[in-house]
Amino acid sequence: MSHRPLRAVSTLAVLLALTVLAACSGAGNRGTTNGFVSGDGSITTVDVADREKAPVLEGEGLDGRPLSTADFAGKTIVVNLWGPWCAPCLAEAPELNEVATQYADKGVQFVGVLTRSKDPSSAIAFNRNKGITYPSFKDEGGKLELGFNDSLPTLAIPTTWIIDSKGRVAARVLDKVSASTLANLIDDVQKSTA
């Protein structure tokens, strides 16, 4: 009796299982809206002396107007990578909006980066429905998120970065973030660059 057919079936079953697992985790879905890679909730903070220059994000906002983080120079900037197809992104949106409102006159500017969405209409509708007024970039090709590769690259969606008032990447959160955690991070970043 030969074990080759059984071995071939076993190998095929393992390959099929790996393919299914990759599809569920979002691996290999770059550029589509079918999946996402969720984060582990890790928070990375960078000592002041070790902070790398943040990319200047430039492009088109959801409203079709030009948008640039250079317009917010001198402020602490919170950048959130999100998509309307991403459940953790939608769950954290009210938390982000709460902190954006709370810190609006404390030298903090929030900016979204809409990723993997060819049609921003669902994102515009979501923001309008939730009362989110801070701007978001359209970033269909992922160019803006790649700008963080030299400092703290994204490994998940959602990802939130905090850029200090001197234009350096100071912190990153992988996965959804709570209002209290985000507020504490912003406070720490502002104190460290005062």
UniProtKB/TrEMBL annotation:
Residue ranges of domain Thioredoxin in the record: 48-191
Protein known as: TlpA family protein disulfide reductase
Residues annotated as signal peptide: 1-22
Annotated Pfam families: Redoxin
A GO MF label: oxidoreductase activity
UniProt-listed InterPro entries: Redoxin, Thioredoxin-like_sf, Thioredoxin_CS, Thioredoxin_domain, Thioredoxin_ResA/DsbE_sf
Subcellular compartments: Cell envelope
Gene3D superfamilies: Glutaredoxin (3.40.30.10)
GO cellular component: cell envelope
Alphabetic keyword roster: Cytochrome c-type biogenesis, Disulfide bond, Redox-active center, Signal, Signal-anchor, Transmembrane
GO BP term, pick one: cytochrome complex assembly
UniProt-listed SUPFAM superfamilies: Thioredoxin-like
Entry annotated with the keyword Magnesium: no
Domain of life the protein comes from: Bacteria
Main subcellular location: other
